[in-house]
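Researcher: Next sequence.
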Amino acid sequence: MYLVMELNMSARTTLAMPTLGLLLLLAGAAPADDPPSPAAPAAHAPSARELIERVREGGYVIYFRHALTDHAQIDKDREKLDNCATQRNLSKEGREQAREIGSAMERLGVPVGEVLSSPYCRALDTANLAFGRSEVRKELRFGMGADTKETAWLASKLRDLLSKPPEAGSNRILVSHSSNLKEAARVWPRHEGGAYIFHPLERNGFLYVGEIAPGEWGDVALP
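Model: Next structure:
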């Protein structure tokens, strides 16, 4: 388990650290036995420009919720995930959104290392359209509706990925789902296509730094 703290510094962050079987929330967060809740907006959260300047230097984990999907579709089979016909998939707008995010990150000079994805088609398509490659990780699969044991396992594995530093000079990309991040870091990914930035601290867990909304990558012009 992890100790999760929201710290009011120059920018509000969430710090997750390993603990001995306890999940404590400080700074006014909900008790540990309550379900995770959306992080409150920061009064002085870093802007998209500031966050992009940071990730251009590498050393971060960037968690993407998959791009826009067709909500007329539903997930009918959670076992055979290589069959996209039984899943909720990216919409036409979502496919374009993924391409635009990848193009903007390349234009901005954001270094991309490993790209790890949920096995769901909407996540894999997001990763491949944005970055041209992906590695499937079963621990990033959609956690909504999982039993208590599996939910805890998925959260633990995701915290490990958020805590592990990427290769020097790069950022690790994770493409997954909303509920997974909520369970692991108490951060609710509101936007499909949103990017949530974490600073890995190895055995000390991770810091949640801030969010870059899907359209903000293309709105920022940097030298």
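Model: The chain is about 30% helix and 20% strand. The longest helix spans residues 92-108.
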